[in-house]
Amino acid sequence: MTNANKQRVLIVDDERVNRTVLAAVLKDENQVILAKSGEQALERLSIDAEIDLILLDVMMPEMDGYEVLRRIKANDATKDIPVMFITALSSVVDEEHGLTLGAVDYIGKPFSPSIVRARVSNLLRFVRQRKLLETLAGRDGLTEIPNRRTFDQALAQEVGRCKRSGQAFSLALIDIDYFKQYNDRYGHARGDEVLKTVARTLTLALRRPADLIARYGGEEFALILPDADAHGGLEVAETIRRAIETLAIRHEDSTVAEHLTISVGGITTADGERLPNELIAAADRQLYEAKRLGRNRIAWLDEQASATSPGGRAPCEQE
């Protein structure tokens, strides 16, 4: 098997002998990348996010494995990479802490090479199957709603339809307010459950079969509303915003409310000449505006009216 066909495993351990032993155990079936510190691992991930699995030591100088894991999970480009702790810390409390932060497995030192090989093989098989299913089904593996690829295809089709018909449509980006702080306080396992709950709530809030909600990345979702003017787009956005508030998911580290909230940035256009990435950028600017105004609100650009209409708690509020 050539390196191009092998799955990629990043081993992070400050002890050279541990890196050497683990690399020897895994190198025949996998492409192995080595890092001797947390900083070196994060630097590698910043330029190469195509890693399939990370084996991470906990007890390292300067930056321990727990902090490395927090940073991996806080980065949209790396948060879905599974992390396996291999460490001398073997108490139940240590294992629970690692799993709460988002690790998928926890192996104590001294480790058995055959056990490491088997567990890595099982995890990588799952990673391979997940990626294949996401590609084939166009679905996000965690939330089970359409993924970014499906959204990109749907937006391109909607822009083409708009160009042919001249009919307006609405596009929105939705962001969970202070989601990093939620993960930091409650752990990534609960954060993942929140993402799934939010995805289900957004899906149930849609009114028409043609409307599309997709996971855009991290804690962001994207919404396409065909044949929807600004008033209709704002109504749907406000319904979604209220639905998330109604969940009353406690969020003690939010400065907006004691519960989970979302911010929404949207655009209504009938300009079929605009490129999809231009429309996404316009919606993203409105999302930034909603956050600047205090979050838990909607900011909307109606290109048909050539005016900005940020919405707050009342749907279709004009300013």
From TrEMBL:
Domain GGDEF: 167-303
Reaction catalysed by this enzyme: 2 GTP = 3',3'-c-di-GMP + 2 diphosphate
Entry EC number(s): 2.7.7.65
Keywords annotated in UniProt: Phosphoprotein
Domain of life: Bacteria
Residues modified to 4-aspartylphosphate: D57
Domain Response regulatory stretches: 8-124
Pfam families reported in the protein's UniProt record: GGDEF, Response_reg
Name the UniProt record assigns to this protein: diguanylate cyclase
Source species of the chain: Thauera sedimentorum
